[in-house]
Amino acid sequence: MRDFHNDEAFDMRPTALAQVSFLADPAGQESEPFVTDVVAGLAASPKRLPPKYFYDSAGSDLFERITALPEYYPTRCELRTLKEHAADIAAIIPSGAALIEFGSGSSRKTRTLLGAARKLAAYVPVDISVEFLDRQVANLQREYPAMVILPVAADFSESFDLPEAVSVLPRAGFFPGSTIGNLEPQEAAAFLRQAGRILGAGAVFVIGVDLIKDEKILYDAYNDAEGVTAQFNRNLLVRMNRELGANFDLASFEHQAFYNRAQHRIEMHLSSRKRQWVQVCGTNVEFRAGETIHTENSYKYAIETFQQLACSAGWTPLAAWTDSDNYFSVHVLTL
Ligand code: AVJ
User: Fold this and answer.
1) Residue 257: phi, psi to the nearest 5?
2) Contact, 87 vs 81, CB < 8 A?
3) Which residues contact 237 (CB under 8 A, 6 or more apart)?
4) Cα–ligand 1 centroid distance for 282 (angstroms)
5) pLDDT digits (tens, 9 = 90+) for 111-134
6) Residue to probe by mutation, ligand 1, list 60, 108, 178, 259, most atoms within 8 Å of CB
7) How does pLDDT run across 202-220, given as a tens digit for each residue?
């Protein structure tokens, strides 16, 4: 594991904050839940796998490619809105605050906030992919040499500890990308409540939420012509083959994505093209022809519905902005 403490780039940090750096050691922690979740998910009926396992290093790279696809509007629309309202967001974030990002990924959207809110005391990216986090933090530190960056390698869907250094600072949460859409609405409320516990009273929370819209636009965003989303979906099989010694035949599973209108969500599945048996973690898993593994839900919200959800979790809506197409929303909440 790389030691952020001894990294040269981090010597630029102000001394008060330079003493504490936190990076959970993922060794022995990451493979265990993956095995447990795969065994349980493939034994369940219907079969399913948690979408967080998309994001190994290769999967995180594939997701980055998705965000650049012409059909995938969320990233573009959200970035536009964040840029347009950067000054508003900067005004809402208390000076000397720590910015805590849940699922930081490439931190591209964060740059709009880091650029605007120069009074930030620290940036705390929290991400499940250690290698990806490592690379992105190095890039970001080069761009913002004076910024105190305290990465946390953790699964933000579970409780995690903030770096000690942040405990004395006001906090602003950042959860872009409509990642919250991966959760069932009641799980999303539970997440918001827990984020409230982590961020504390007085915190502000900036959240990106995808909006309900024309079904063709939704469909195309998850069925891109180039097939990158299909590759991203199948990467779960690649990962099980590599990490769990499974023997999935990639060609015999088809990418499926469709809009479930009743539930306001895109569903992604991997569908078996034939009846087959696959070895996973020492067990034989049977697939009927057409049987699927449900790999992701991506919930879409109306602005008011999301605000009600936030209220039910103890937050107060401060603002909600959208792009000119009304495709995507950026919410600001306070606690
Ligand atoms: C990162 C979860 C918001 O649901 O749009 C993109 C993931 N899946 N294409 C989404 C994703 C397929 C993405 N989130």
Assistant:
1) -145, 130
2) no
3) 246, 248, 250, 253, 270
4) 31
5) 888 776 668 899 999 987 788 788
6) 178
7) 999 999 999 999 999 999 9
